């Protein structure tokens, strides 16, 4: 149920899908929902945590598969056309960031933890060359990645969408090598 909800929430937003549709998506009845969760917000919290953990695992896997250029591997995955089109399994920060901003501390908590995990990963990937400034640069890089992906999803023009992704990748590589 949690995995299905994490995908459906990323596709429709927290408020864009009701319990009935969430439960149908998981092949369960609404009665089963209340045996597992106290509220839709409870499900949103657990689904968000799962989505962010999955995203973090994808970053780690990309980095491990390409030890010669782990940051490049993460950028190639994250700023790709495939990830841009991948709404249900794509970045939960992009898909749900504005929804989360309208919710309380409980829903924000797993996003904050996921964002910190991404920052830690980026920090590790650039720390060897960045000295003391890697934390600030990791924040700038994550902001650029999330922003580029969000902008690329917000436009109809595929050339413009790719230009956002390519420009961000180039700037991030420049930041990381500085």
How would you summarize this macromolecular structure in one to three sentences?
This protein is mainly α and 178 residues long. The protein has helices at 2-12, 19-26, 30-36, 40-65, 70-78, 81-85, 92-101, 105-130, 134-154, 158-177.
Describe the protein in words.
The protein contains 10 helices and no strands. It is mostly helical and 178 residues long. Helix 1 (2-12) crosses helix 4 (40-65) and helix 8 (105-130) packs across helix 9 (134-154).
Q: Main β-sheet: number of strands, strand sense, barrel status?
A: none
User: Uncertain runs with pLDDT below 50, 5 residues or more?
Assistant: none
Shape: globular
Structural class: mainly alpha
Summarize the amount of helix as a percent range.
over 70%
Strand content bin: under 5%
Task: Please provide the count of β strands.
Answer: 0
**Average pLDDT figure:** 92
Number of H/I helices: 10
Give the N-to-C terminal Cα separation.
45 Å
Could you state the order of secondary-structure elements as H and E? HHHHHHHHHH
């Amino acid at each position: 149920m949690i995995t299905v909800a994490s995908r459906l929430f990323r596709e429709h937003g927290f408020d864009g899908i009701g319990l009935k549709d969430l439960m149908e998506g998981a092949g369960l009845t609404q009665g089963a929902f209340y045996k597992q969760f106290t509220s839709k917000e409870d499900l949103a919290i657990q689904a968000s945590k799962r989505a962010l953990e999955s995203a973090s695992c994808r970053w780690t896997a990309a980095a491990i598969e390409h030890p010669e250029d782990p940051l490049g591997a993460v950028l190639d995955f994250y700023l790709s056309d495939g990830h841009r089109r991948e709404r249900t399994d794509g970045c939960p920060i992009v898909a749900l960031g504005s929804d989360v901003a309208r919710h309380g501390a409980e829903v924000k908590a797993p996003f904050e933890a996921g964002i910190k995990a991404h920052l830690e990963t980026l920090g590790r990937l650039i720390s060897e060359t960045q000295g003391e400034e890697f934390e600030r640069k990791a924040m700038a890089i994550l902001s650029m990645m999330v922003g580029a992906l969000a902008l690329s999803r917000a436009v109809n023009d595929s050339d413009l969408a790719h230009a956002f992704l390519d420009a961000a990748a180039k700037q991030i590589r420049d930041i990381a090598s500085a």
